[in-house]
Amino acid sequence: MITAPTANDREQKRHIMSEQTSIRSVSVVGLGPMGQAMVRAFLAAGVEVTAWNRSTAKVDAMVALGAKRAATVAEALDTNEVTVLSLTHYAAMYDVLGPATDHLAGKVIANLSSDSPEKARAGATWVRSHGAQFISGGVMSAGDNIAHPASYIFYSGPREVFEAHAELLRPLSPQEYLGADDGLAQIFYQALLIIFHPWLLAFDQATAVIERSGHDIDQFVPFAIRSSEAFPYFMTEFSAANKAGGWADLASLKMMDAGAQHIIDASEEVGVDATFSHTAQAYWRKAVAASEQAGKPVSTYELIRGTQAAEA
Fold it and tell me: What is the pLDDT of residues 149-162, one digit of tens each?
């Protein structure tokens, strides 16, 4: 005998359907240290993850944590609407997605790989030419620690695409949407790395000088941290100056040249490589020479930006 569903039956069915529609899921392609960190963050937030990587051992490790395995990139694309790419560069995107382009239509690709802004723009055009939507991301993190309080992710691309999937991507790190330009996330990301890379080399040189001089790096580090607290002041001052063409004063430029020589001497006296400081000194000296030739102060910002070359 067939009986009509009761109110309780209907409520249970609605609850099941609600649970099914509320399940969030995503595919992650590329399981280097950053990709693995992303999988762990998604899983911790209750997001179902389908993972693919060339090396099956890395997929095994993520499956052990609760991820689902995709045997092919096509399967990863088919399984979910959104696929996050965590690859070495954009060229790898073409290598990975190229054989599966007929699976891209109707999908969303969030490429969180590092590369140049122009390569991000070209990649966005390529993905869209195959019927998929695209957003670009730049992951600012402490190494692969995307849970660090200082970690966040730049996003750029169509606002409607970002906003439609922002909640799904939220477990990865705090989000900073910059604008519609597909290359904008990479512009900001690479600009911050421009600051970070020299700092990293400078810190290596500084601590090498301390150690080679026979002193304690641990004793030095608190003073390095203390000095870094002035960096925001200098950033504010120099950003204002750079918008006006850059800071320049001939006497100060000569003082910076002399200061760079002192750094070089302190480093080389104890056998520490001072190549980085020689490079910095070359800029100060170039600015001094340009200032003397122009009969007015010429800033290092102008030289680096290429202002004079553009005006010539």
Answer: 999 999 999 999 99
